[in-house]
Design goal:
- The chain has 6 helices and no strands.
- The chain has helices spanning 3-37, 40-51, 54-76, 83-86, 89-129, 135-168.
- The model has no long low-confidence stretch (mean pLDDT 92).
């Protein structure tokens, strides 16, 4: 693999990964709790983020980060064939970071994206009806908000651990 390609992969992995991890940490620890605390006003913010395709930005960043990481891992492991490197401290630590990031992606796509979409759809239906949510709708909104909050925090923690693993891997 050429030095230029390695540099591009590393820059993509780090710069896009910083955006991804930072956005997920911001959403999980600051944005979602703030939206929940502000009630209906928070719902309007969430609808706006959904209309701006925030989930697609995060999904795109995750895919670019993972694909560039796979390219770097492939290079360092001689095409996944160097058992010596794969079993080394750096190989295992980079691998652990990758697994943590992949689990975070699964949570983001299977839990958070679905819950956010359902919550946005429900809020839009209630708003379009020009009425407050019914008791069932309010309970559903609360359940979806809880799922979104828990999934966001879990994904953020996993990505912070993955980032720590990536940062420390060369020294393990």
């Amino acid at each position: 693999m050429s030095l230029g390609l390695l540099l591009v992969l590393r820059l993509l992995h780090i710069v896009v990964g910083v955006f991804w991890v930072g956005a997920v940490v911001f959403v999980g620890f600051l944005l979602i709790p703030s939206i929940r605390a502000t009630g209906a006003a928070g719902g309007a913010v969430m609808q706006r983020l959904t209309s701006r395709q925030m989930h697609l930005w995060l999904m795109g960043a995750s895919v670019i980060t993972v694909l560039s990481g796979i390219g770097l891992y492939w290079h360092d492991s001689a095409g996944f064939s160097s058992t010596a490197w794969l079993g080394s401290g750096p190989g295992r630590t980079f691998g652990l970071g990758a697994v943590l990031a992949l689990v975070a992606i699964v949570i983001g796509m299977a839990v958070n994206a679905r819950a956010a979409r359902q919550l946005g759809d429900l809020a839009a239906r209630v708003q379009a009806g020009g009425r407050p949510p019914s008791a069932d709708e309010a309970a559903t909104m609360q359940r979806l908000q809880d799922r979104l909050a828990k999934g966001g925090v879990l994904a953020a923690i996993l990505l912070l651990l993955a980032t720590a693993a990536m940062a420390a891997a060369r020294y393990t």
